[in-house]
Specification:
Number of domains: 1
Strand content: under 5%
Number of helices: 10
Protein name: Viral late gene transcription factor 3 zinc ribbon domain-containing protein
Structural class: mainly alpha
Pfam families: A2L_zn_ribbon
Organism: Lactobacillus porci
Shape: flat
Length: 250
Amino acid sequence: MDKIKCAVCGGQKIRKESDLYVCQTCGIEYTLGQVQELYYQKNLKQEDLLAKAKECYRRKEYRKSCRLCQQLLASGAKEPEAQLYLALSQARLHFHSKSAREQLVSGTSAAIATKRQAGIGRSYFDFCSRALGEVLVLGLAYEEAAEKVFYAETSHLDSSSPITIAQAEKRLSKELMASWETCDQVARACVSGIEDFSEAGSGFWDLIAAMLDDLNINAKRGIASSERLQEERTFFAKLQKAPCLFEEIS
């Protein structure tokens, strides 16, 4: 099986050891089914690999999406979408890890930086819109998970347990704020160091507005009237040169 490339390191020596197949370069282990998948993938073109990776992500086959993106990147291709969907898939796989959000931000920011190397134009902002949109969806998933934990913790409590309820509310608020921070950091990565936004379409700014202006969600996060939110509103409004886009919260 020397002709099959390892999805992690790109090594071409994968040999059977007992019931598993082991890459002789990095030591990662594969099942028979995974090796068969690698054999199928090796004949796919780069665009086919990327399309399949995105399809797997949509079908919640996150491990397979990771392997496809890793295979594409291991070939030396500078493909920002592969970087993006690798970061998204890994975030889904390690959903409850404390470091998952940090890795999501760093991975998505790296994809944005790669895309920027090709120039800042409509294609760049379209990519940023896709990246930010995916992160916003994932951010809402983080928030929904935090709310489920909160309701599970407090469903059996009553008013005689105010301290416990208050502690649960504090943890929930912290998780919701962390989710918003994740989205905000990705949005910042999209615009960092850019002076000309003439090629940024309305869809890009609509996503920024969605992150900043959902009053119900921001009230739940506890940031509806926070100084930090107002600072971000002002920051992005100045970039767009349309201060009235983001209405003030009274």
